[in-house]
């Protein structure tokens, strides 16, 4: 069992979403051979005292515990906390998850044909460390802003009807957020029939 607390300025933060994911994420290979720790993300809420309890956590695994970006972005950001569960039946107290001011990423999604972005299109920022993301609408000129980000590695993907990214099959390269970024750009290209 992993227990912990989410706080801001020393006060508990209720009704936030907490995530738990293995530090060494894994998968199943050929012949169902297991690589790493292929456990799915667990999500649980904080109570009125900002506390959370995650029961039935598999042992002998290093984990990240974190507050999801969407649930606390109006308050700030918190970095993931590492937790090790070494044996069955263990009760592990995680360090407090402390909400502090985060960083922002402002940028533009450019279309290679210089057309405006249609209404309702979105851009997604995903963490490379934990299973967490933010999705926000794109302005018609392609401008966007993600706020309250903790230090970490991220990727940004545009989801625009009729367009694709020109990236390798494994997606866009990650970038590090350890300061405010005001001029991030990515270009998308018309889908070729």
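Q: What amino acid sequence fits the structure above?
A:
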């Amino acid at each position: 069992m992993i227990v912990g607390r989410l706080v801001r300025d020393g006060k508990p933060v209720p009704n936030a979403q907490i995530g738990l994911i293995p530090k060494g994420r894994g998968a199943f290979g050929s012949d169902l051979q297991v690589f790493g720790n292929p456990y799915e993300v667990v999500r649980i809420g904080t109570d009125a005292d900002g506390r959370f309890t995650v029961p039935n956590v598999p042992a002998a695994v290093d984990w990240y515990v974190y507050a999801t970006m969407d649930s606390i972005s109006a308050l700030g950001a918190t970095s993931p906390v590492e937790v090790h569960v070494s044996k069955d039946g263990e009760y592990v107290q995680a360090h407090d998850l402390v909400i502090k001011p985060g960083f922002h990423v402002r940028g533009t999604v450019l279309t290679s044909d210089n057309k405006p972005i249609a209404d309702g299109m979105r851009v997604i920022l995903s963490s490379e460390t934990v299973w967490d993301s933010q999705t926000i609408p794109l302005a018609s000129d392609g401008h966007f802003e993600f706020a309250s980000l903790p230090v970490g590695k991220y990727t940004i993907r545009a989801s625009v009807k009729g367009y694709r990214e020109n990236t390798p099959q494994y997606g866009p390269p990650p970038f590090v957020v350890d300061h405010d970024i005001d001029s991030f750009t990515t270009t998308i290209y018309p889908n070729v029939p």
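Q: And what stands out in the fold?
A: The first helix runs from residue 69 to 72.
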